[in-house]
Hints:
single chain, mainly alpha, two-stranded antiparallel sheet, 2 strands, elongated
Amino acid sequence: MPFVLLVVALLGGGLISLLLLNSALNQGSFQLSKLKKETTVLRDEQQELQRDVDGYSAPDALQRRAHELGLVPGGSPVFIGPDGKVAGTPAAAEAPPAPAPPPSAPPVSPSPAAASAPPAVAASPTPSPAGSPSSGR
């Protein structure tokens, strides 16, 4: 009789340990699945950000942004050597000439109602010269 109880106890303990081991493996599997989904989302976000960086670092985008900021292309570079000698001639950078505006459409003849009305003249105030000396000095 004690031998049968020992065998039943060993079998019961083995089944319980198998059940706990299986539960732990299933929990790890669910966690692995969750982490794979999170990795996929993060990889997609990383690729989207990389596309944005590539778009902003494209030469035409850089040139357009520099033009918006008022930057102009530099002239010939000037280098200062380790001994203090200057190689090259420094010169101020100049803005390239503005592109010519597109040709405008021919004037349209005014309608009869607009022809009878007097033309409106926009009065613009003349600004005072900025460099005029003041009388208080």
